[in-house]
Each structure stands twice: as structure tokens, then as C-alpha cells.
Amino acid sequence: MRFSLKELFSVLPFKMRDPGAMFYDPKTKLLNVVSDADNILVEITLDGKLVKQYAFPGNDQEGLWIDDEDFIYIVQDAGGILKLKDLRKR
After folding, report:
1. 36, 45, 73, 77: which could join 49 in a potential S-S bond, CB 3.0 to 4.6 Å?
2. How distant, in Å, are the alpha carbons of 26, 46, 71, 89 from that of 82?
3. Could you tell me the CATH number of the domain that includes residue 40?
4. pLDDT tens, position by position, 3-60
5. Has residue 90 been placed in a domain?
6. Predicted TM-score (pTM) above 0.70
């Protein structure tokens, strides 16, 4: 069975407009999700609890990756890539 991000987030206890991408972080055991409508990255537990929310620059986020050197890559729909040093405690 397949679900879209919008279907998945319709059951969470918080609202997120237009989730664009998610990345499971095995170091923290959290899902990291970007919203292209809100320009935010959120961390949520696997049972759906909101841990933290971060604002970031850019628009139309459609991809997300965190590498082994603690850089976050956020891919934008227009083709740009934001590369940010992940300063969160991991």
C-alpha cells in the first residue's frame, strides 16, 4: 500500500501545508520533513509527535537529504540546492 505525504500528514496532530519531502535520520530516529508552502523543516517521532520546527530560506522544497558530515541538502523545485550545516544535536 502506498501513501502520499499529504495523506500521511493528514493523520498527525499538527498541520503542515504541502509537505515536500522527508528523510528518516537513523542517528536521531526521527523523520525530518520539509514543507514548501511554509519554508520549514520539522522533526517528528515515528509515532507522529512534533519534536522541533525550524525555519529556513528558500521556496518550493521538493527534496531532502542529510549526509554523514552533517550537512542538510534541500532541493528546490526550480533546481536550486540549499546546503546547510546541521547544527542540531545529533
Report:
1. 45
2. 22, 26, 10, 20
3. 2.40.10.500
4. 565 555 555 656 777 788 889 998 899 999 988 888 888 999 888 888 999 887 777 8
5. no
6. yes
